[in-house]
Specification:
α2 crosses α3. The chain is α+β, with helices and mostly antiparallel strands. The chain is elongated. The chain has one domain. The strands form three sheets. The chain has a three-stranded antiparallel beta sheet with strand order 5-6-7. Strands 1-2 form a two-stranded antiparallel ribbon. β1 and β2 form a beta hairpin. The chain has three helices and seven strands, in the order αββββαβββα. The structure holds zinc ion. The site of zinc ion has 6 residues, from loops.
Length: 117
C-alpha cells in the first residue's frame, strides 16, 4: 500500500485541470442573448456583441421573408453582409448581390421578428 502516491496523482490532476485556460466572456450577444467569448467570430458594436452565426441566421430569415430563392449569404467585410444569387452563364459563374445588410439593419429586423428557421 502506498497511500501517498494516489494523493499526489490527484493533486497533479487538479493542477492540470486548473491550467486549462478559461474562455473569457466578452459580453452578451444582442441577438441570442448568450455569452460571446470568441473575438474572431463575433462583432463588437456599441451596444454589445453579435455572434457571426446569429447574424447569418437573421439574414437568412430576412431573405426568406423577402421570398428570395436560391440565395447564399456572404460576409462582405466592414460589418456588412450580402444576400447573393448565383447565375451560371456558360463557363462564367456570376453572382450578384440582391441585398446588402449591415448589423444595424439586423438589430432593427430582430426587434420585429421571431426566428422561424
Ligand atoms: Zn448570438
Amino acid at each position: 500500500m502506498k497511500p501517498y502516491k494516489n494523493k499526489n496523482r490527484e493533486k497533479n490532476l487538479q493542477n492540470f485541470i486548473l491550467e486549462i485556460p478559461k474562455k473569457e466572456i466578452l459580453g452578451k450577444c444582442i441577438l441570442c442573448e448568450k455569452n460571446v467569448s470568441d473575438p474572431y467570430y463575433s462583432f463588437h458594436i456599441e451596444d454589445g456583441y453579435i455572434h457571426f452565426e446569429c447574424a447569418i441566421k437573421y439574414i437568412k430569415e430576412m431573405a426568406y421573408s423577402m421570398r428570395i430563392k436560391n440565395f447564399r449569404t456572404i460576409y462582405l467585410g466592414g460589418k456588412k453582409f450580402g444576400i447573393i444569387s448565383d447565375r451560371e452563364k456558360g463557363e462564367n459563374k456570376k453572382w450578384n448581390i440582391i441585398k446588402k445588410v449591415d448589423l444595424e439593419e439586423i438589430i432593427e429586423y430582430k426587434k420585429n421578428t421571431n426566428l422561424k428557421y
